[in-house]
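Sequence only, no structure available. Ideas?
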Amino acid sequence: MRARIRTARKAMVLAAVASLGAGLLAGCADDGGNDGSGSSDGDGKGKTTISLGLFGTMGFKESGLYAEYEKLNPNIKITENVIERNENYYPALLNHLTTNSGLLDVQAVEVANIAEVTATQSDKLEDMSKVSGVKPDTWLDWKWKQATTKDGRTIGLGTDVGPMALCYRKDLYQKAGLPTDPAEVGKLWAGDWAKLVSVGERYKAKAPKGTYFMDSPGGLLNAILGSEKEKFYDASGKVIYKTNPAVKAAFDLTSEAAEKGLVQSQTQFQPSWETTISKSLFATISCPPWMLGTIKGKSQPDAAGKWAVAAAPKGGNWGGTFLTVPKSGKNVKEAQKLVAWLTAPEQQAKLFKVQGNFPSTPAAYTRPEVTGAKNEMTGDQPIGTVFAEAAKGAPVQVIGPKDQIIMQGLSDNGVFLVTKGKSADEAWNSAVKTIDNKLDQ
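Reply:
I predicted one. Tokens follow.
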């Protein structure tokens, strides 16, 4: 999933701010005004060039949406400047927003960063709710609210979301004596994450040699917290992760799973974790739609069709992005039109069919691209309806400006340590110390 939730490393961030300025500026050399009438792509045809600043593979180009829009609008040319990892992209974007310079016509913002941008940089961004044809009820309610300021301005339109399900290996479940049908599997843990841990114990009792029930402690913790309405911040913006009973309960349950040997001693998205996918060393993984792409990319060819998707114990979300239009862009009006078109249900459904990016617009959920969606890794199972129900059930979650830092601390400096022999209390204290040092508390 475009490495969206991988946490920032300090050295990379420092380098990024210095080095990416030129990259963000690269698409801004066109002359012209904010009415979109004067920018030229340099080919002598007088086309208006709309530049997008993105991270990872957002799929607009790959799914043919740019080409389709250019065909519908012959006076428009679309270019994109892409940084692979969000932890490199975002610090530079924040720097340019702060100085209100060097911004492209459209800038993507990851969900982990949208709260900070909405709270501190909204004056630099256009109110997309004012764009013709844009209606709040087109999007999932919680998705729309994430990019809406306290005074009612909506500074970004949602592209995809990451509705949480659980992906599992049917062959490993069968060998462990567990059901393999997605509906029956979902019933095993319906409504309660603790039931999932109990299923893990059943799996371990008859597990194929060398395999674990789940891929990582961080993946489990992130899934549980993703289903909570309130986790690290309250509605007033106060940091509450230490006092929120839901966070401690999730931490303790994940620690229990680690103590019982149900999760691998791995950190997600690291090379050693990727190797465990190719070697089929775990049976279950917290799984928004984009995770299937990761599974496919790291699996051996014979893994195709051996996976299935079941509903998670509770609805949640992991991932998602917004498209914003800076006021200082060269082609504001044309950029707004493009963003509204790219995020419309029809285009989001097409994007899901090709790229697996799940729509944030419920109207897309009844389109055949979603209802009939299948994946190479899950064979004939129609997976779109599973993810659609998860998206509808996800809570309107309070997103804080430093969610990413807190989550990394709880995972990498917390529950991961339990897999290395630390007690749950020791791991919690380590996580709190790390997080508070980074938050200067």
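The chain has a mean pLDDT of 89.
Hope that gets you unstuck.
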